[in-house]
Fold this protein.
Amino acid sequence: MHVIIADDDPTMLALLQVVVEQGGHEVVAAVRDGEAAWTAFEAEQVPLIVLDWEMPRLDGLGLCRRIRASENSDPFLLVVTGRKTREDLLNALDAGADDYMSKPVTPDEFAARLRIVERRIQITGARRQAEIELRRARYLAGIGETSLALQHEINNPLAAMLSHAALLEAGMVEEHEKEEAFATIVAQARRIGEVVKRLRQIDQPRSVEYLGNARMLDINPGGESKPK
């Protein structure tokens, strides 16, 4: 994953860059002000931007607003700042930030948050790709048959993802169980991704019997889809 980092503190900038690269990602720009970050983002539409709040020329919230107002892409925006009040958090979210970390930040804390962010980006990407492929499938085979096929294939993994995400969001998962919960979410996202992949591979769409007189798009190459 390509990442842009913006922080006017050179020590913090270096720390964030090291942790990002140790996580297996590539820092395409490590800059010390918001305008430079915006220029880097215009040059490459990266999926993740890690940014400080207080920076010269253009501060972090101003950068968030500019990115959200653009038509280029929709990156994940992680604000890392010394501000800690609830009002500050709400202001960051209102400006378009996706997540928020308060300084001081340790390498372990940032590495853990980076893994969570990566999983969220994967899930969001899978959902968006599924939406794109759904529009294509609707064009190819009709809304009704495609909707039945996706409901048939996606409902169970989607329900598992949402239930685990809800438990995590509500703080109802023990610390030692969080890794397993995240792994389940990622696994179910990949299941949905496989469905999307099969949709992309359909060259000659056909429908099969589902229940009663209903029919649905067959997205299983080599055999008919069977209702469960």
User: Anything to note?
Assistant: The longest helix spans residues 107-141.
